Amino acid sequence: MKLSVIIVNYNVKYYVEQCLDSLGRALDGIESEIFVVDNHSKDDSVGYITRRFKNVAVIDCNHNLGFARANNIAIRQSAGEYVLLLNPDTFVGEDTIRNVLAFMDLHPAAGGAGVRMYNPDGTRALESRRGLPTPMTSFYKMFGLCARFPQSRTFGRYYMGYLSWEEPVCIEVISGAFCLLRREALDKVGLLDEDFFMYGEDIDLSYRLLQGGYENWYLPYPILHYKGESTHKTSFRYVHVFYQAMLIFFRKHYGHLSFCITVPIKGAVYVKALVALVKMLSYRLRKSLGLIYKRGDDPRYLFVGGKQMTDRCRLVARRKGLSADFCSGDENNYVLAIDMVNRYLEKTPLYVVFDTDAFSYKSMLGIMAQVSRPDVKLGTFSNKTKIIITPDEIIK
Asked: Which residues are in the Glycosyltransferase 2-like domain (predicted)?
């Protein structure tokens, strides 16, 4: 078995379905197996995925075990020479996995690899390349120096902004959204640390790979990451879990440092967590009192694809009252679609919804990279499922 793919799901069955569809194309000809570990979802994810993907091994957990523990359950059952940890709110380019495996085969010192992740607006996700959050690197990040000097090898090390996006380069931290691991390396350094419920386990594993004598790589092959469709980043739970993960990592790997170093860093983490929580609660309070209500512009939709797709989406748009335009096109003929996007006023939210029968996942990402506007986000429509998927909602 060449590859085992593991996806941990929590209440995002439609995103998982899209992810599995992209994997069906990307794994063609590769000896592989796919596990979906469901963390006790309430949206019938298990039944939905089981009915539609007979070749996927679904593990139905009785409780929400967290990201690390759920992945470890599947890793222990898997048989691949390589293991790919993949977020449910992603889709992969058709040749991305094949290219990553070819690189790993040629570089036996590589313990793991990540890829070029795109945001839904076509921009490159900074967390595609990261440095270890050493005390000083964490200090520069938390106090804004990383954002102020992103290209600096000192201040910008957290996102390693000085590295090339177009070439394979060694990095320190591989994102857990797409983390391809050599089985031999996992056997040597151990599985994910289950003390991390969610967030931080990818940093910890990357650090242990480096300590074990392996290299971590960034490879310029594309995926889309919706970024957290399975989490609620405005919740108290998110704030607690995220900053708790930072403290667990710091205590585990840097707790031996001088008291004069550890106290300021730990204090900064607590302050950041408190500020984030206060901002969140303040926003909710003001919104509930009607003090900050502001009606935003209604989003528009541009549907691009074949006749079957555009006809179906016209009906959906009429039924849902969507402001929509339609454009015939495929991955060999999409210039008109880009011209139409450029006619829209900036700051008016626009979803460009691609026909997954007419466009490859790789070509969708390439087109969005050309557009690359914060007000324009990628969406998809499948003639098979008849579902519109955007970063912000599911439309059926």
From this structure: 4-189
Tell me the torsion sign for CA atoms 74, 80, 83, 85: negative
CA distance 316 to 301: 11
Please check whether residue 295 lies inside any domain of the structure: no
Q: Classify residue 171: in a domain, yes or no.
A: yes
Contact 206, 216 (CB under 8 A): yes
Which residues, in sequence order, are CB contacts of 244 under 8 Å at separation 6+?
197
Instruction: Read off the pLDDT band of 234 (50, 70, 90).
Output: very low
Whether residue 280 lies inside any domain: the answer is: yes
Rounded to whole angstroms, the Cα distance separating 191 from 86 reads 15
Predicted model pTM: 0.86
Tell me, what's the pLDDT at 263?
Answer: 60
Helical pair 135-142 and 236-254, crossing angle rounded to 10 deg: 150
Beta-sheet strands, E only, within the chain: 3-9, 32-38, 56-60, 82-86, 90-92, 110-118, 169-171, 178-182, 215-225, 300-305, 323-328, 350-355, 376-382, 387-389, 394-395
* 86 phi and psi angles, rounded to 5 deg: -130, 130
pLDDT tens column, 70-109: 999 999 999 999 999 999 999 999 999 999 999 999 999 9
Domain that holds residue 251: 236-288
Point out the domain boundary residue: 264, 288, 312: 288
Tokens of 36: 């979906």
